[in-house]
Every structure is written in C-alpha cells, then in structure tokens.
Amino acid sequence: MGYTLPAVLSVPAVVAVELCWLRTGLFRRPGYWISMVIVVAFQVLADGWLTKLSAPIVRYEPDQLTGLRFPFDIPVEDYLFGFSLVTLTLLLWLRGRKTT
C-alpha cells in the first residue's frame, strides 16, 4: 500500500498545518467548501476518464492501493491527495497574501 499510506497521512498533515501553524480560517469559509465540491466534481470527470479500468490512461500498481474505487474506477486515494493538494495550495496562497 505504498500509495495509500502517504494519501491517508496527507490529510491530517494538511489539517494540522492549518490548525497549528497557518491559522487562516480557511475551513470556516463557505467558499472553501463550495470550491471543494467543484474540485471533486471535476476530479470525478477527469480522474474517471484517466483511471477507468476498461481503458486506463493512468495505471497504478494494484498492490500499492487499497483496491477501493469509486465512482468510475477512481482509486479512493486520489480523493485524499486531491483534498490535500488543493487545500495546501489555498492555505499557502492565503498565507502569502497576509505577508505582502
């Protein structure tokens, strides 16, 4: 499960960065949660096309994943990394705005 562990650990790590260090208040903003819904919607479309088992463009080593895929054969680990990458980017963007 070489992909699963970092994916799972990335979520609490990013949450900890916000709650313990950056403290931007991002998680309290409705706009953040609306943007995450939009991100996930487009992630389902793009990732569903890229990882569909019937004709994959992106292939994962099966022993590196949990094997859970939803919907359209998307590995659940992709959602965890997606959350972490988008959230950390927004957090750093907000932090950068405060320092300039």
Automatic annotation (TrEMBL):
Pathway: Carotenoid biosynthesis. This is Lycopene cyclase domain-containing protein. InterPro entries: Lycopene_cyclase_dom (IPR017825). Residues 14-92 form the Lycopene cyclase domain. GO terms for cellular component: membrane. It is found in: Membrane. The chain crosses the membrane at residues 32-50, 79-96. One of its GO terms (biological process) is carotenoid biosynthetic process. GO terms for molecular function: intramolecular lyase activity; lycopene beta cyclase activity. It is a multi-pass membrane protein. The keyword Cytoplasm does not apply. It comes from Amycolatopsis pithecellobii. Keywords: Carotenoid biosynthesis, Isomerase, Membrane, Transmembrane, Transmembrane helix.
